[in-house]
């Protein structure tokens, strides 16, 4: 005995089972691209002072505690990600296109 499924039922089942692909927002994609690019060129955070263990980003923000909590590892560092978010917002507010490579980011500082 064969059972037939109508086209409406088939479309309904396919729409509920197929995962909807979420489009990543451009800000998150740009930050991920900058992190990958920074990893390509730097083993430790480029804003980390090895001699004193301080974070230059924290020093720019006049934070009292300027010690790096992550010992120079910038993968997933909230301070580094926040810095990249601020840079992205600055590029968008000034009407410039954000750089594609991390090395190009330093020219705009």
Which characteristics define this entry?
109 residues, elongated
Describe the overall structure.
With about 110 residues, the chain is mainly α. The protein is elongated and about 75 Å long. α2 (about 25-40) packs across α4. Helices cover about 50% and strands about 0% of the residues. The mean pLDDT is about 85. It contains five helices and no strands. The longest helix has 17 residues, at about 80-95. It has helices spanning about 5-15, 25-40, 55-60, 80-95, 100-105.
Strand-helix topology:
Elements (H helix, E strand, L loop, with lengths): L6 H11 L8 H16 L14 H5 L17 H17 L7 H4 L4
> What is the H/E order?
HHHHH
Ends apart, CA distance between termini:
72 Å
Low-confidence stretches: none
Radius of gyration, taken over Cα atoms and rounded to an integer in Å? 22 Å
Specify the structural class: mainly alpha
* Biggest sheet descriptor: none
Question: What sort of overall outline do the alpha carbons produce when their principal axes are compared?
Answer: elongated
**Average predicted confidence as pLDDT:** 86
**Helix segment tally:** 5
Helical content stands at: 40-55%
**Content of β-strand:** under 5%
- How many strands? 0
Q: Quick gist of this model?
A:
This protein is mainly α and 109 residues long. Helices cover 49% and strands 0% of the residues.
